[in-house]
Amino acid sequence: MDGANPAGRKQLAGAPEDLINWSASRRRRIEDALEALTDQYVRTTATCPATAVAGQVAGAGSGR
Questions:
Q1: pTM greater than the 0.70 cutoff
Q2: Tens digits of residue pLDDT in 6-61
Q3: What residue ranges do the domains of the chain occupy?
Q4: DSSP summary character for residue 9
Q5: Coil, helix or strand for 48?
Q6: Distance of CA 38 to CAs 24, 29, 64, Å?
Q7: Inter-residue contact 11 to 2 (CB < 8 Å)
Q8: Which of 10, 19, 39, 61 is found 20 to 30 A from 25 (Cα to Cα)?
Q9: Whole-angstrom Cα distance, residue 17 to residue 3?
Q10: Burial code of 12-41, b = ≥16 C-beta within 10 A, e = fewer?
Q11: Measured between alpha carbons, how far is residue 10 from residues 1, 29, 52, 60 in Å?
């Protein structure tokens, strides 16, 4: 790692900016999907998921 860039993200030396941006936007999409799946779980079960269940919900959203 060569440190943080001006946006505060860590990056590998020589990694293309478009790869870094793709990775960051992918992470945001995953986080958004996890939030939507968690909301659906809460509506369906009327309970908040435990940490282990939240991981299972995240796995379900990825098609695994």
A1: no
A2: 555 566 678 888 888 888 888 889 999 989 988 998 899 888 887 766 667 666 65
A3: 17-61
A4: -
A5: coil
A6: 21, 14, 17
A7: yes
A8: 39
A9: 15
A10: eeeeeeeebeeeeeeeeeeeeebeebbeeb
A11: 7, 19, 28, 29
